[in-house]
Design brief:
There is one protein chain. This protein is of the alpha/beta class. It is built from 20 helices and ten strands.
């Protein structure tokens, strides 16, 4: 993983980190040229394709002779899955000319075309050069995807597209509860990752309460293994297990209050309990020595070598660490350990959410075609194809039967099944990139886990950062509806 993927302070930002599914890709194949072929013409927008006739086979009323242009971010998910879906579009509309291109430079390639009023019909707006979705929405540059969501799904005419999607996908595409502007295609499971083989060797089960967690770490320490490690240089990975733990202990409304930048949200007793629990790992010497100095790759490598039992991470870790995870590692992920039986939500409460944001520009020539291509991508066949090729789930809720899943993916699916409706999706990292990354992550959690701040000091500091962000008129503020 190139460090550009998610360690730059702002633009590159942790907008990407949550889409590390996407960031999987920033070191992948070089860019495919700058789409010079499709940067046609300027002027004040382009002629819209005339709408086609709506039929049961063509519910969005795509003009079957109109061209359709699709630009994909060229990242770690590769381009095959998209090319395969484009072929389906070509079969369904044999008279339509389809243009497909990939680039790593989404913003520098496509922003000028937005400005000229001739953007493509469908864009995977991802990577280090992602265009700011909040700005695009604010400038009315995106098409509302409600017609797609309300259309019959590709596989089952009795089911709307929206009813085939995983929890949180529709909400993630909304800004201030308005229409849906973005469709996140990949689906990432966050949690505590470990080797089932290592856990078995300690004759231990995955711990559900914090007392059990401390007991497992003590066992590991006796065998010369640390309980935990994490990306010490980029401690905004810690929330992947800490935030859902806060929701488990205090209820999801605690996370909503944090996202909403409400006064004293961080002073909730659930936050205090979870910070103190994590600090105890440091105090008892259960964190791998030297962790605060490790980056994400170094910490993952130490963990894969068996130097530490647990690491907070996202489901991209299986692909990203494939070259260091031993064949018999038996990779697994679990929802975070809670405090005890008084927690508000059951064990299994997990963070999972969308990555790879697809958008249809408002001024696209063929918005119906762009949405239809998305409808094809959200079919069972396209979803299975993606999962088979790139070891990641999609927004389509299913698509895993009959294909062989890698250990991490299998474990992720099981964790989602166990969670049921107890899936949380903190939005801080989408809404306030710098606050989440540099301030809460590095200056707050990182300092606490290195032993330089007590939990009480960390909470006070983080609440201060949140209050500053709430008062900052230069940034747009969002709220859970």
């Amino acid at each position: 993983m190139g460090s550009t993927a998610h360690h730059g302070v702002e633009g590159v930002g942790r907008r990407d980190l949550i889409k590390r599914s996407a960031a999987l890709g920033l070191v992948a194949a070089p860019g495919m040229g700058l789409l010079s072929a499709c940067a046609s013409g300027g002027g004040d927008g382009q002629d819209k394709a005339k709408a086609g006739k709506k039929t049961s086979k063509n519910p969005l009323g795509v003009n079957d002779t109109a061209g359709m242009e699709f630009v994909l971010f060229d990242g770690g998910f590769g381009k095959e899955y998209a090319q395969d879906a484009v072929k389906v579009y070509g079969k369904d509309f044999p008279e339509a000319k389809v243009k497909f291109a990939t680039t790593q430079k989404i913003q520098s390639t496509l922003q000028p075309r937005f400005n000229q009023g001739n953007p493509p019909d469908l864009i995977d707006n991802s990577g280090a050069e992602q265009m700011d979705m909040g700005v695009l929405v604010g400038k009315n540059q995106l098409a509302d995807l409600t017609p797609l969501l309300d259309a019959p799904s590709y596989d089952d005419p009795d089911k709307k597209v929206r009813d085939t999607l995983r929890p949180g996908i529709v909400e993630m595409g909304q800004f201030d509860g308005k229409p849906v502007w973005v469709l996140y295609y990949a689906y990432t499971v966050y949690g505590v990752w470990y080797s089932q083989k290592a856990l078995d060797s300690l004759d231990a089960q995955y711990p559900q309460t914090w007392d059990e967690m401390l007991a497992v770490c003590a066992k590991a320490k006796q065998k010369g293994m640390a309980g935990w490690t994490y990306a010490g240089k980029y401690p905004y990975y810690i929330p992947f297990s800490l935030y859902p733990m806060i929701a488990k202990v205090g209820g999801r409304e605690v996370l909503d209050a944090i996202d909403n930048l409400e006064p004293n949200a961080w002073k909730h007793p659930a936050v205090k309990a979870c910070f103190e629990a994590y600090y105890e790992l440091y105090k008892k010497g259960y964190v791998l020595k030297g962790t605060p100095g490790l980056d994400h790759i170094q910490s993952q490598t130490a963990w894969a070598k068996g130097e530490a039992l647990f690491i907070p991470n996202g489901s991209w870790v299986e692909n990203e660490s494939a070259n260091v995870i031993p064949a018999d590692f038996d990779l697994a992920v679990s929802a975070p350990t809670g405090i005890d039986s008084s927690d508000k939500l059951p064990f299994g409460t997990i963070w999972a959410s969308g990555g790879e944001p697809f958008i249809v520009p408002a001024k696209a020539k063929n918005t119906e075609g762009g949405m239809e291509q998305l409808r094809i991508l959200l079919s069972e066949a396209s979803s299975k194809n993606f999962t088979t090729k790139v070891k990641s789930l999609t927004a389509y809720n299913g698509g895993t039967s009959g294909i062989s899943l890698t250990p991490g993916l299998k474990s992720g699916v099981a964790a989602l099944d166990k969670a049921g409706s107890n899936v949380v999706n903190p939005r801080l990292q989408d809404w306030y990139v710098q606050l989440q990354k540099e301030k809460i992550g590095v200056s707050g959690l990182g300092e606490m886990m290195a032993g330089r701040l007590t939990p009480a000091e960390a909470i006070k500091k983080i609440q201060g950062f949140a209050d500053e962000a709430a008062k900052d008129t230069s940034i747009k503020h969002y709220k859970h509806q």
